[in-house]
## 1
Amino acid sequence: MDNGFWLALLLVSAGTLGMRFLPLLWMQRHLLKQKSQGGLASIPGWLSVLGPLMIAAMLGVSLVPATADWSTWLATLLGALSAFMVWLWTKSLGWPVLAGVSSYGLVILLVRISTGG
Amino acid sequence: MSWQNGAREATPLLGGYIPVAISFGMVAVQAGFSVWQSILISTLIYAGASQFLFVAMVAAGAPWGLVVVMTLLINARHVVYGPSIAPWLPKSRWWPFLSHGLTDQIFALALSRLPQLPAEQRLGWYSGAMLLAWFSWVAGTAAGAIAGEELSRHWPLLGEIMPFALPALFLVLLAPRFTSRTWSIALGATIAVAMLLTLYGFTNASIPLAAASGALCFYLAKLTIRAGGYRNG
């Protein structure tokens, strides 16, 4: 690797950090200004809509299996259903994830055993 | 202790982070990077998809300028994360460092959990969650770069099964948001668009594009429901 690697690494790292930090700093200052002017400190309406939608988009992307065939889709469906059912029951974070991963893994294992793969 | 709570609640992320980080370490070494360079990329850039692109473009001999621009373009979605959680974050001189850990997953977790926590616990909670996720990513990369092939030989299925922790976690974070017809339409449309774009190979663009489509659906549904209300009322 030549010097280009180090320069590129530096630029991408600084750029990514800037994209994470500067908008946060800007919004914190904006909220403080709102508060000091006696207003109610709140973020713009479109931003409070966009936040949950970004999580929904991440869910959509991560639901698509890396190797998409009937067995991985079935495992995804059952894994998601298990996670949802356990969430309805416990309303916690950890147990539904554990249930989802276990169901997903169980389906993959059973399919591998039954097909001899 | 609030940082311990944060670390505990971020533990499900490890199921997704470690296998992907191991894959990244393997891919980077195979592409000609040294073990230390691979670890440095994960430590400093710390953004999954863009790291894979960075390594793939360098291995393909792309010009450095193009590598930088493309990698930053993929990370551009991060600009909305900080402002979205800003109302729940106290002022601290540590933010230039702490915001380095504001990944997709930490954002999703923070947006759901921070509003439920007392103000004095939020900084500690975020620090614990962010540090655990970051260390797991760097450690996973190191493991993949040093012994990736051996790990995948010993536990071939683990790398396939554990990443399901991420969709399971997103599902749990999103489930309480289906509070009205408007939100259900917008969230459902976003998930569907993101899945379609990913299936057709537009994985990198799918998060911002799907979220933008969802926002459009949200405002259209709101307008339609309001108009229906006026007609009926």
Note: Chain B touches chain A through 89 residues (CB under 8 Å).
## 2
Amino acid sequence: MWRQLRIYLAWIGLHFLLIITISCRDIVWLVAHKVTILPSSFRIGAERVEPIAAGALGNKLSASNPFRRALLTYLHIAGIDRGYGYFAPNVPAGYKLVFELHYPDGRVEYELPGVNSAAAGLRVATLLDEIGRTRSDPLREYIIKTLAASVGREHPGVKTVRAVFGSLNLPSPAEFERGKRESYDFLYAYDFSRAEGPAKAGNP
Amino acid sequence: MARWRERLRAFLFPPDADLWLGLLRIGLGLQVLLYTLSLRADWNYLFAGPGEGLIGRALPEALLSTDSPLIPRLGWIVTLAARTGLSESTALSIAWWVLLVAGGCLVAGIFSRASAILAWFVHLCAAESGGFISYGVDNFMTIGLFYLILSPLPDRYSLDQLWRKLPPKNPHLLGFFRRVLQVHLCLIYFFGGLAKCLGSGWWDGSNLWRALIQAPFNLIAPEILIRLKYLFPVGGIVICLLEISYPVFIWDRKTRGIWLAAICAMHVAIGLTMGMYLFAFVMIVLNVAAFGPEFSFRLERTPACSKNGLASTG
């Protein structure tokens, strides 16, 4: 009986240690990247702690390391691979992706990445956040290209697709009362012709 | 030292009934049903392979492989189906139906553990293969289903129990898994609340305003919301305090009911005002299963300690 109890204790100890480490890592990351209200003096401490937390979670091990793989597998199957800072520390800016569909006869139509249900619509918003957040240009381009291809498939006659990606500017309550409404800042544009990659990419 | 050990043991393995497990099973079963039905029209479009669908599974699954090749993904199901001559589209449809049936079986309590494992596996495959399109609801469903498959199923409210007349489960094990869920929820709210407290926008209410007016969460017109602008700072601070103090006040029997009701009310509000119905529902299910049985119906009392302790695991 005591042996069985010890197994449960060991599991729960490790399980909660992992949850706490991941949550702390996320909090420390926020502080280190100066996105919190804490004074900048906290940043130095956070920058020191950040690699320790990352190291404890096996991030410094090679991708093929069996311990790292086993740990990441467990984190994913238990649903504890990420922290719980939803809408925190601040609600980020939203993003918008618009496709300009150019037809051979010169006609231009505008299309948004669309799905059939509201539940899937929330997932598209998550995808746009991912595009906006990533610092990897190839990843951003790949995702937008794939989305453009899905729009292109639904419009077989289209010649080229221009994808325009922008961030959302939301008015404060005071600005809203003064008549200001949401606006967009241009971030990236990509041109795709049918059956090929981006013809050119523009950055701000 | 021995006293501390005994206290820890008493805290982690309290004798408990299985009402909480029944609530968790039925709640997560409903959640799986709602999740599956809500994605019915988009399932194949969201999770299709390269050259089809919205963004395809190829990139998320490739990134997943760099983490570990052992993390479940829809590609496994598609590959398995391909060996039997089934197309990718058919394999994805089968996965959807399996998830739907598993959700229904969980609600009824038929083949409870097998249904829980199937629901956990197929949902996890979809969440991981979805990658960029997964959000909080997937995370919490995985957590809930993971604990459900480990817990001593079936509970006495399931059809399994009715038909098979199984011996009662070890109350200490029931208490242990409920404790795991309770502590996990405390960590979720504490760190969620802490992260919010570190943002200026929760103290001046601007985060509530921003969350409510941006697509796709803008169910209420900003012209209506602006009339409530004085409530946003209060609302923001209340959310921060409610979450960060959850691990303190949810344990005390005097404040447990208030905190549980307030947290559930917060999730209902998130669901109704932002359209995040699935997220709201899974959070309410987890909270009610973890801390609600004392308030629900008073169906039963906590059973006496098992003389056999953990050795009598059912």
Note: Residues 183-300 of chain B form one domain.
